[in-house]
Amino acid sequence: MNFETDRDFCSTTTGTPLPTPMTTPTQSVTDGTPSHAAFPPVITVPCAGWTFLIRHQVSGLVITLREGILTLEHETRSKGWGGCHWACVENDGWFGFRNIVSGTYIGHNGKGEFIADAKHHGGHEFFVTKPHPEGGYWLLTLHNWKCMNMAIMAEQTPSKLVVSADRGAAWEFLSVETSVAQD
C-alpha cells in the first residue's frame, strides 16, 4: 500500500500501520433529529474534529450513553437526548470518542467492558479504526498493551459492549456535525 502522508494511517501499539482511507464524510444531519431511514448505507470515515453517530452495521443500533450506562439503542429512541452523539478527538495518533452531553469518553474498565465515565482521553480511551472486510470499521482499543476489538455481548439486555480478542463488530460512522472543539 502506498501512503501519501503520515495522516493516511494510524499506528498500533506495535508500530504496525493500520490503513485508514482519507475521504470526507458524506452524510450529515442538520436538524438534530436523526432516524435510521435518513441514512443510506454509506460509510463515513472517522476523523478528529467531527461528531458522529456510531452505528452497528448489522443491527442499525447506535452506541448511546443513557443515564450513565453505555448501551446500544435505535436512533429514534435516542433522538433528542444527544447521548448518541460522539465527538471524535485525536491525541498522539489515537482517536477518542467524547459524548457531547456528558463530556465523558468511551473507554474500557480494565475488566473487559466498555464504559463512558472518564473525563479525560487517556490509555483506556484510546482507539484506532481498521476497515472491516464486510464494510464499516473495527474499533480497536488498547488493552493490556494489545489492540483489542469492540464487540457486542447480545445475550444481555440491554446489549453490552465488551473487549474481545476475537473478531469485533463492524461500525459505521455517520456525521452529525462538521466541527468539534479539540481538547
TrEMBL record:
Biased-composition ranges, Low complexity, are 12-26
Give the region (Disordered) as residue ranges: 1-33
Q: Mind telling me which PANTHER family this protein's record contains?
A: CYANOVIRIN-N DOMAIN-CONTAINING PROTEIN (PTHR39697:SF2), RICIN B LECTIN DOMAIN-CONTAINING PROTEIN-RELATED (PTHR39697)
Q: Identify this protein by name.
A: Uu.00g112140.m01.CDS01
